[in-house]
Amino acid sequence: MSGLVMPPSDAGVLQRRDEIVAALRAIVPGEGVISDEAEMRVYETDGLTAYRQVPFVVVLPETVDQVARVLRYCHNNGVKVVPRGAGTSLSGGALPLADGVLMSMMKFNRVLDIDFDNRVAVVQPGVTNLGITRAVEHRGFYYAPDPSSQIACSIGGNVAENAGGVHCLKYGLTTNNVLGVELVTIEGEVIRIGGRHLDAEGYDLLGLVVGSEGMLGVVTEVTVRLLKQPDTARAILIGFPTNDDAGKCVADVIGAGIIPGGMEMMDRPAIHAAEDFVHAGYPLDVEALLIVELDGPKAEVDHLLERVGAIAKANNAAHIRVSETEAERLSFWAGRKAAFPAVGRISPDYMCMDGTIPRKALPHVLTRMQEMAASYGLGVANVFHAGDGNLHPLILYDANIPGDLDKAEDFGADILRLCVEVGGVLTGEHGVGVEKRDLMGEMFTDIDMDHQIRVKCAFDAKQLLNPGKVFPTLNSCAELGRMHVHKGQMPFPDIPRF
Hints:
The chain contains 18 helices and 20 strands. The protein is an alpha+beta fold. The chain has four domains: 11-104, Uridine Diphospho-n-acetylenolpyruvylglucosamine Reductase, domain 2 (2-Layer Sandwich), CATH 3.30.43; 111-228, Uridine Diphospho-n-acetylenolpyruvylglucosamine Reductase, domain 3 (2-Layer Sandwich); 232-341, 2-Layer Sandwich (Alpha-Beta Plaits); 347-435, Alpha-Beta Plaits (2-Layer Sandwich), CATH 3.30.70.2740. The longest helix has 18 residues, at 404-421. It is globular.
């Protein structure tokens, strides 16, 4: 797995494999346990295919009771567990362990309840993102977060990574659209956090769970917010002669107080790849392309389209085209949402990064990325959520060329360091996983990391849930609780100790 270092395998667990597999089969009978190596290979990687590991064993539970019993067994027997959704994660969040149970939640695939009066839906974690919208669209509702992989990614995985999408600028990410979850702890306890109400008093435990990457518990039910489809939605396609012009336009639109439903940007390599793949009608004589969608009442949308068009012209726009039909609007988005597979047609391999920067830094960061690309001798195509500064550089490489993967990893690390350097963060929606794990020190101090690990310890004291992800150094919970003794004198000696 290239230079990636994962926690050492537990020799005792490996020796007890037959015993562990038999115990799991007793809990999840029939076809619920996969232990054959050839059959497990489909689970050896997620969307970050540069890293692979055949699982120790795969379990596919169908009931909450089975999830609880499997987790309780693993807790009592010191067996690691890696939760997995649809496997579309781009950060290695579902990368298996050689000595860990891979728990696939894709048999939890039912919509349990739709409450239009309260505008919520209750679904199991294996339901696809798009599946929620499909279940409610007949009444004019939809689920707002829409990752490009929405046809395949599961809502449980969205919760784990705090997934976003092209319309999250206005309507928020997963954390802004999830009202409650049912969570099973590593000890096998079933707890509920949040519900159908808008908010709750006390600590924001729901905020902890969303984006926790399967490290605090296994989600078995999700309550999501439903939104009413807007009266009107139209998109404007804007081409620019330079990336600087496009970046300035983004800042000017937001600075004017206009919050589009979506605002996406693509550079020349991405434009050409997407157009060749989808034939969406993108202009090919521009360096950068913006897709800006406005939604709401028709009069408001028409007015905002005029304002955005004027701002674009003031920033040297070379091409402006407004969608006149719903089919045309969807075609604009089809190219953007197919950008990742489109780039896969022009390069044997690519690595999709995910950093977020202040909008004003877009021109500088894009220029620096091109300089880095020349330095590393690798191509890069940029597709990103311009409105909220969430970058998705696609680093092009060939894994069959010795050293190419290492260069791609180093290039990606430099991009993420640049994001932090200009005031941004390491990830916007893909999560940390293993991809950004060893860069966490670029953004957080040791004190920051220790506090995050303490939260992990409160849920999982033995650190059995998805170890090797997010934290570059896996301290034991006992180490974090250590006490400094100076010259034989403990602090606060008058406090009773147990």
